[in-house]
Design goal:
With 159 residues, the protein is of the alpha/beta class. The protein has one domain: Rossmann fold (3-Layer(aba) Sandwich), CATH 3.40.50. It is built from six helices and six strands.
Length: 159
Amino acid sequence: MRFGVTGHRSLPPGIAGCAVDHWRRVLPTGANLLGVSSLADGADQLFAAHVLAAGGTLEAILPSPWADYAGTLAPDGGRTRLEGFLRAAATVITMPFTEPCEAGYLAAGQAVVDRCDHLFAVWDGLPARGPGGTADIVAYARARGRPVTVLWLDGVRRA
């Protein structure tokens, strides 16, 4: 099985631990784990790190060429982590957009869904703040009959 992720780029306290604890409990380890991620800050990179730490295979879906996409990530480590994940990924697929844009984020999120059998959503359940946001990707997955597991803690609000 292939597992994909979508989620918020900024995770409030407790949410990262909730997601990682869940993944440790339910995901296989080693060669049986294939994870698909767009490698954005937050949930995407958290999942990619878990997949690699568990000995799994990482597939990256980028919304635009990596050099431009890296410029949209947090300067305090998101860009560096992106480069490391890209080196570790078995496959890197880049959407046909020349620069980061909402259409590219939406296309990348949809590609994650199309390439996975089960989607994890590190999501507060609220509407997307722009096209291609977590809510849009969850809706796309559900419309295609993909199982979706939402990982969030009751009462926790995103900044």
